[in-house]
Amino acid sequence: MRNVARFLLATCLIASPIGAAHAAGCLKGAVVGGVAGHFAHHPVVGAAVGCAIGHHRAAVRQREQRQQDRDNRSQTNRGSEGWH
Length: 84
Fold this sequence. Notes:
By secondary structure, the chain is mainly α. The protein has 3 helices and no strands.
């Protein structure tokens, strides 16, 4: 359990400058992966894999949100072009 705590601390320190979405995804994934890995007797490996998966999912979510925002802006701009 002490190793998991050390790994999570190291993950927090490394991921903090990355950005809020990526750090949150990594930390949440690391916690879930650490717990799952604990039951498989590999908590550090589980936390590392969970961090990677959480980071990936947060990045995908952020990319989708940016695309949706762009689509909304383009629809708004198209709708106002005809009314000058």
